[in-house]
Write a sequence for this structure.
């Protein structure tokens, strides 16, 4: 979390582009995510070899994390700018907080460090939602090519269920990091 504080200080006048805070820890968690999804695949898919199964999951996760997430983030920033979020929505009312946490989550405008201490983890939780859908759909497409002999329905069901498990893990890590950071400070 000290890296987050350093990043905030470094780009204080530009706001907080959340991709720079979200992607590094999530990339660091890609191995546990792949293990979670591979274990789920091992338990539920008996129709393909372990090597083909695991390599498909590895490739799908690498592509969705390092291409899908940044593309989703750029789209979210564009939506934020198109809806007037480039100058911020404010935090004076519950509606403004909701707008800041939803439409403004991709690139937080400059706020005080006290506000950012709860806004950054909250924005990370919100960003997990579109990233979840990007992962489900992009990895499903990749797995269709990697697992040619597996039925579409099976891959579709697998993609939803394994991502519920892996994103549950990611959500718990973000919540743990937020609690740890707030206790530490």
């Amino acid at each position: 979390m000290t890296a987050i504080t350093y990043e905030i200080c470094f780009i204080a006048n530009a706001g907080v582009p959340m991709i720079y805070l979200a992607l590094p820890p999530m990339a660091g968690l890609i191995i546990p995510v792949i293990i979670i999804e591979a274990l789920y695949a091992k338990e539920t898919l008996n129709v393909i070899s372990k090597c083909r199964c695991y390599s498909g999951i590895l490739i799908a996760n690498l592509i969705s994390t390092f291409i899908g997430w940044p593309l989703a983030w750029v789209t979210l920033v564009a939506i934020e700018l198109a809806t007037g979020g480039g100058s911020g929505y404010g935090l004076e009312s519950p509606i403004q907080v909701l707008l800041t946490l939803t439409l403004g989550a991709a690139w937080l405008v400059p706020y005080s460090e006290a506000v950012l201490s709860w806004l950054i983890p909250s924005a990370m939780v919100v960003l997990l939602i579109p990233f979840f859908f990007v992962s489900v759909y992009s990895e499903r497409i990749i797995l269709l090519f990697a697992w040619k002999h597996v039925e579409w329905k099976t891959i579709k069901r697998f993609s939803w269920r394994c991502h519920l498990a892996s994103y549950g893990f990611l959500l718990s890590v973000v919540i743990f990091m937020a609690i740890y950071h707030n206790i530490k400070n």
